[in-house]
Specification:
The complex is a heterodimer. Chain A is an alpha+beta fold. Chain A has ten helices and ten strands. Chain B is mainly α. Classes of the chains: A alpha+beta, B mainly alpha.
């Protein structure tokens, strides 16, 4: 087909028009989509999600693992017999390991001898996100450091980058090691990294994180740091709190009342 | 053409072998197996027209995946105006709970192996 000068100009004009209209249509569609969850109106929306752990209160419940059990059962976290294969989202760590540079030899007995509850800090400046070569780990606008399991290639850069040991790698197929599978949440496959997701899937349904809901003593407080009237801000205003390894500049969003 | 005959025979054998899938069923006399996915739901309407779903369900699933995981948007409006949750296990498999008779029919026929079920949990199939 030969094309004349007039024909070419007409075609070019039409193409431009189609391009402009197409973009409008896509934008309109995106607006409609982002408007929908509000219409459904159940999801919890925050600008900067954070958690406060009342460490003393938590330590007094000697041997309690309610939050760990709740988290690990709703997220299908496997229990491997070999500690080298261990997968953990929320677990207990001795105070001097968890709070490096904030411990000393003569620290009070209560802190010294009982393990502290630790989880992914959902850092404001997350090193795991920076090193991820595929963008599988990313920071959401509400501050949650989330993983897209579909994109994880299992390179374990994030495991090396995280200064808190919050990331576990699936060395083996986790499915046979899940005691009771919850059909509402996917399992993982061999060769991907996983960690706490601040229960993003529950927030979307208007529910608090599983660990917060499971804690009978209300040691865990979850909320929006940007909201000055939120429970987390209230608790942080009223108590002295510390964070893990603050000198690294990762700016953790999990706070500890000691 | 010293070995013309051999070359010719070789070519014929080669052509016969490479066209095997074409003439096999004609010779055998049986009709070829055609995948026959069964739809068991009472719902009248899928989230998109059937013709679109037949050819593009994988694109739609990828879009849903990215919307949910990357954008945090969990709901979408389908062609019939209803609002659906963008979920493979909750929305798709709610109607198409017979995975072995629906998904696997074509996937096995075409020898494609989607990795959905490596992580997502297969619904229990209805007993018939």
């Amino acid at each position: 087909m030969s094309i004349g000068r007039r024909g070419f100009i007409k075609l070019a004009g039409l193409t431009t028009l189609a391009g402009v209209m197409g973009k409008k249509a896509i934008n309109a569609f995106a607006d409609e989509l982002s408007a929908l969850p509000a219409e459904i109106g159940v999801s919890l929306v925050g600008k900067r999600w954070a958690m406060v752990v009342d460490l003393k209160k938590c330590l007094r419940q000697d041997g309690c693992t309610d939050c760990i059990n709740a988290c690990h059962s709703v997220h299908n976290v496997p229990q491997f017999p070999n500690p080298k294969d261990e997968i953990k989202w929320i677990w207990k760590e001795s105070f001097d390991h968890a709070f490096l540079e904030q411990e000393h030899e003569y620290i009070e007995d209560e802190l010294k001898h009982s393990p502290a509850l630790v989880l992914c800090n959902h850092c404001d400046n997350p090193p795991c996100v920076r090193v991820c070569p595929t963008g599988a780990t990313f920071k959401r606008e509400d501050g949650i450091v989330e993983m897209d399991m579909h994109r994880c290639i299992g390179c374990r850069y994030c495991v090396a980058a995280c200064p808190y040991g919050s990331r576990s790698f699936n060395w083996r197929d986790p499915r046979p090691f899940i005691e009771k599978t919850d059909p509402d949440f996917p399992t993982r496959m061999r060769g991907v990294v996983e960690k706490c997701n601040f229960c993003a899937e529950r927030l979307a349904r208007g529910r608090m994180p599983a660990c917060v809901e499971a804690c009978k003593e209300n040691c865990l407080v979850f909320g929006d740091l940007e909201d000055p009237n939120s429970r987390v801000r209230e608790v942080l205003r009223a108590n002295f709190s510390i964070r893990r390894k603050p000198s690294l500049g990762t700016n953790p969003e999990v706070y500890y009342i000691v | 053409m010293h070995d013309g005959g051999k070359i010719l025979i070789g070519l014929i054998v080669f052509l016969a072998l490479i066209t095997f899938p074409i003439w096999y069923h004609a010779v055998q006399g049986k009709p070829p197996v055609i995948p026959d996915p069964k739809i068991i739901t009472d719902a009248k309407q899928c989230v998109a027209p059937t013709s679109y779903m037949k050819t593009n369900h994988m694109t739609l699933l990828n879009e849903w995946r990215d919307q949910v995981v990357r954008q945090g948007a969990r709901y979408t409006q389908a062609i019939d105006g209803k609002i659906y949750e963008m979920s493979l296990t909750k929305t798709c498999m709610n109607c198409h709970s017979n995975k072995s008779e629906f998904c696997d029919q074509c996937h096995n026929y075409l020898d494609v192996d989607p990795y959905c079920w490596d992580c997502h949990i297969e619904p229990e199939e209805p007993v018939q």
